[in-house]
Specification:
Length: 569
């Protein structure tokens, strides 16, 4: 596998040891040979398969060693703290007994445990005493199921952003530097290195389960990136001193047509929105109106709404060019990132697949940013998150982000044809979005014979499509029903089809994933946001050295490559 070579290459660190291994991880049970694994959108019911392949779950992970135990954790720019829940436990470790709970996303899920302190290893980095949460319980979906046992936060560590640091300082005093974030402790260990991290979340094709990427601290992936990064606009953190990696998004274009942006966050300038750059979010979450504005411009895309579930079905081979504007520069999103495959849907006994939107809509998702741009967008850029440069007076400058576009829209268009068709060659045929929506809404159904069924025969049936294994019949709803009736619950949307429709079209069971399974990892921070400045680390007044470059190109991109160099506008 290409991945192994790449992984080894990334493990070969520099003299300064500033690289750490990075891995993209699909849900367990997914395999390289199954094109349907990985970025899958499930129309299946709440079956076992659902629990495993609960889709949209590509996470970018790395291995760290806490208290001598190696743990695979998510790299998360959406939060700050480190927590782990390794299956075999951590053994005996120094447990402060301070109970803590970290909540993510809309606050409905998270992890809880106690704060521990232990030696920490990551690549060639070694921290003698590092605080973390030893979780006893996690309600974040699809982490442990995917053999991922924790989160490594890469955001700011001032008191409001880091509950761990806040608690440690409260109990052990300001001198307890072991409560600071992993990154902060690494920065402090290397005072002459710049305080930034840089990431390349690689897409090596359509649906690979694992792929490389790079993650570096204080240096760039490649020497020739430095110049390009210098040429990229500085995107200051907005608001200054905020808790998160949020910046202003100036505009969105869909095939050159501008989309109107309107922020719900105070102080955001007109026509812009505040965007969170969150590597822990496999997709993207925007207000519903914005999702509609984007996908309504994708030829052939049709929305499907039922109660709280609202998604778009689009042609798998869509070549629509969606571009995000930051700092006056347009950053194209690869059309492959606009949709993901569904699980097979059985229609008249024939399996079909469809493609579903990856920019998800949710209103009131957060009050301190408008949109969350997860890996759907971040795969398209080389991103540099700079915590602030040292000033000559020893103070620290304000944090900012720099992005290098990596998707060439023209090349991407061609890749859609080659890559998607290669992927789809091994899949059931695609059902045309309009036809599927017809089935889903019942508008394509034959006129239903009104309640002429015998009491014994169910007049309506919902079947959990389980991809080949047993289908589970669900008791028919009683009373009035339409040709299709929908029942939305925590597991998704179950759609029941009446008998005549059933006879005509065969069984279709549809369960749309609820938003709760498409989880962006954004730490919910309680307290007043945006008003705390990051403290200035005591840096040597001599400033910093230039980044250390590695003269070797390590990327083993495969035939789907084409991202070898930053694509600049
Ligand atoms: C990370 O840890 C897992 C489980 O121990 C292991 O299978 C995997 O190979 C490791 N990955 C790297 C890059 O070391
Ligand atoms: C555990 O860590 C705390 C904080 O660093 C320290 O005060 C204490 O001595 C440690 N206990 C042991 C047993 O190492
Ligand atoms: C996408 O596929 C459909 C159906 O196979 C075809 O009619 C259409 O031309 C394709 N569109 C593009 C942009 O290739
Ligand atoms: C949720 O968002 C909608 C649309 O932006 C807004 O009209 C509504 O007031 C919000 N509701 C709450 C409870 O904030």
């Amino acid at each position: 596998m290409k991945f192994s070579a790449l992984c080894l290459a990334l493990l070969a660190t520099t003299a300064h040891g500033l690289r750490v291994p990075l891995q993209r991880r699909a849900p367990r049970g997914a395999s390289m040979r199954s094109p349907r694994s990985g970025r899958r959108y499930s129309f299946g019911g709440s079956t076992d398969k659902e629990a495993i392949g609960n889709s949209n779950d590509l996470r970018y992970t790395t291995n760290v060693t806490v208290n001598g135990v190696e743990v695979t954790v998510v790299l998360d720019t959406g939060s700050t703290d480190l927590w782990v829940i390794p299956p075999g436990g951590l053994g005996s470790f120094n447990d402060t007994g301070i109970a803590i709970e970290l909540l993510y996303g809309d606050g409905s899920y998270g992890a809880k445990g106690t704060i521990g302190v232990s030696p920490f290893l990551w690549g060639t980095y070694s921290i003698e005493k590092q605080a973390f949460m030893n979780a006893v319980e996690s309600t974040i979906g699809n982490l442990q199921e995917s053999a991922i046992y924790g989160v490594l936060g890469l955001s700011f560590d001032h008191a409001l952003a880091s509950p761990i640091n806040a608690h440690v300082q409260q109990v052990y005093g300001e001198d307890a530097t072991w409560g600071r974030s992993v990154l902060r402790n690494i920065f402090e260990q290397h005072p002459t290195e710049p305080n930034f991290i840089a990431m390349d979340l690689t897409r090596t094709g359509d649906l690979e389960d694992t792929a490389g990427g790079s993650f570096t601290i204080g240096e760039y992936e490649q020497e020739d990136y430095a110049q390009a990064v210098e040429g990229a606009p500085v995107l200051p953190q907005f608001p200054v001193g905020g808790n998160r990696w949020t910046v202003l998004l100036d505009g969105i274009y869909v095939d050159q047509v501008p989309i109107e942006l309107k922020s719900a966050v105070s102080d955001v300038p007109g026509g812009k929105v505040q965007a969170l750059l969150d590597t822990g979010d496999p997709t993207a979450i925007v207000p519903v109106a914005l999702m509609d504005a984007i996908y309504s411009k994708v030829p052939g895309a049709i929305q499907y709404t039922d109660g709280t579930a609202h998604i778009w079905i689009l042609p798998c081979n869509t070549t629509t060019n969606v571009e995000l504007v930051f700092g006056g520069v347009r950053y194209p999103i690869h059309p492959l990132d606009l949709s993901t495959f569904s699980d097979p849907i059985s229609i008249n006994g024939q399996d079909m697949i469809t493609c579903v939107s990856t920019i998800n809509g949710a209103d009131n998702w957060s009050t301190d940013f408008d949109i969350s741009l997860g890996d759907t967008f971040l795969r398209n850029v080389y991103s540099v998150f700079d915590f602030g440069d040292s000033n000559p007076d020893g103070s620290t400058g304000e944090p900012y982000v720099r992005l290098l576009a990596q998707t060439d829209p023209l090349k991407a268009k061609q890749q859609v044809i080659t890559i998607r068709s290669a992927t789809m060659a091994n899949m059931p045929p695609e059902i045309d979005p309009a036809t599927l929506i017809g089935y889903l809404t019942g508008s394509s159904a034959a006129p239903s014979t009104p309640s002429s069924t015998t009491p014994d025969s169910p007049d309506s049936i919902a079947v959990a499509e389980s991809g080949g294994s047993d289908s589970a019949a669900v008791p028919a709803p009683t009373g009035d029903h339409k040709a299709f009736s929908a029942d939305i619950n925590a597991n998704g949307v179950n759609i029941a089809i009446d008998e005549s429709t059933l006879k005509k079209y065969g069984l279709i069971a549809i369960a749309l994933l609820g938003l709760n399974s498409i989880i962006g990892i954004v730490l919910i921070v309680l307290g007043v946001l945006g008003c705390v400045r990051r403290g200035s680390p005591k840096k040597s007044a001599s400033g910093r050295n230039a980044p250390v470059y590695v003269p070797v190109k390590t990327h083993g991109h495969d035939e789907y490559g084409g991202y070898q160099k930053p694509y600049s506008q």
